[in-house]
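Feature request, filed as a ticket because there's no other form

It would be nice if the structure record came with a short human-readable summary line next to the tokens. Right now we just get the raw output. Example of a typical job, pasted below so the devs can see what we mean:
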Amino acid sequence: MRKLTYYVAVSLDGYIAGPQGEYDFYPMCEDMTAWAVERYPETVPTHVRGLFGMPLDTPNKEFDTVLMGRGSYEPGLAAGTDSPYDHLRQYVFSRTLAPIDNPRVRIVDADPVELVRELKNQEGLDIWLCGGGNLAGQLLGEVDRLIIKSYPVLAGDGVRVFAGDFSPTRFGVTERREFSNGAQITVFDRA
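Raw output as currently delivered:
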């Protein structure tokens, strides 16, 4: 069975983006970027792969499907692409976006839990939950793995990593790595 992995950047106070969807406040560094590109190349948007020296046809290693909320999808639209991860099957959960005329992108206004359960039973690589916090909160019961890029910065306000009801859920640390900018990437698997 395929796993659902929430791979996301988080501030020390639990925000994945600022109040207007900003994410440029995270301090970047070369060693962290190189590690992430090598380990999870499919998480690099198709339209910026050239900036990272990646061929467009770099093979997917972990994921072949990405789930996004509207807020996670819209930066791609703002950059001029309706298919930011053209190398993945893309599901965008939104009740306000119109359907996209692209076979790689499906706008979904149905229950995300039901769709994730269907996807988990299909053949393929794992499923990447890209964001946002509202969608992650709805899918918490289906998340099998967390890959948290924890940055040494306080945001103060914004989009929470998980929005929703109080629901303590245990995960265990399976890997941790620190980078030159003070950020850590920690992999957690459901306990």
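Something like this underneath would help us a lot:
The mean pLDDT is 96.
The chain has one domain: 4-190.
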